[in-house]
Amino acid sequence: MAKVKTHYEDCDILVVGGGMAGTGAAFEARHWGRDLKIICVEKANIDRSGAVAQGLYAINCYMGMQWDENQPEDHVRYARNDLMGLVREDLGYDMARHVDSTVHMFDEWGLPMMKNEKTGRYLREGKWQIMIHGESYKPIVAEAAKKSADKIYNRIMVTHLLMDESKENRVGGAVGFNMRTGDYYVFRAKTVIVAAGGASHIFKPRAVGEGMGRTWYAPWSNGSAYALPIAVGAKMTQMENRIVLCRFKDGYGPVGAYFLHLKTYTQNANGENYEKKWYEHTKKLVGEYIDHHPVPTCLRNHAFIQEVAAGGGPIHMVTKEAFQDPHLETVGWENFLGMTVGQAVVWASQNIDPKYTNPELTTSEPYVMGSHATCSGAWVSGPEDLSPPEYFWGYNRMLTVDGLFGAGDTVGGSAHKFSSGSFTEGRLAAKAAVKYIQDQKAEGINVTDKQCHDFKETIYKPLENYTVGRNEITGGTVSPSYISPIQGLQRLQKIMDEYVGGITSNYMTNENMLKRGLELLEWLQEDLENVGAEDYHQLMRAWELKHRALTSQCVTEHTLYRKETRWPGYYYRGDHLKLDDENWHCLTVSRRDPKTGKFTLEKMPVYHIVDEKEKKQAS
Ligand SMILES: Cc1cc2nc3c(=O)[nH]c(=O)nc-3n(C[C@H](O)[C@H](O)[C@H](O)COP(=O)(O)OP(=O)(O)OC[C@H]3O[C@@H](n4cnc5c(N)ncnc54)[C@H](O)[C@@H]3O)c2cc1C
Question: Which of these, 227, 303, 583, 610, could form a disulfide with 76 (CB 3.0-4.6 Å)?
Answer without folding.
Answer: 610
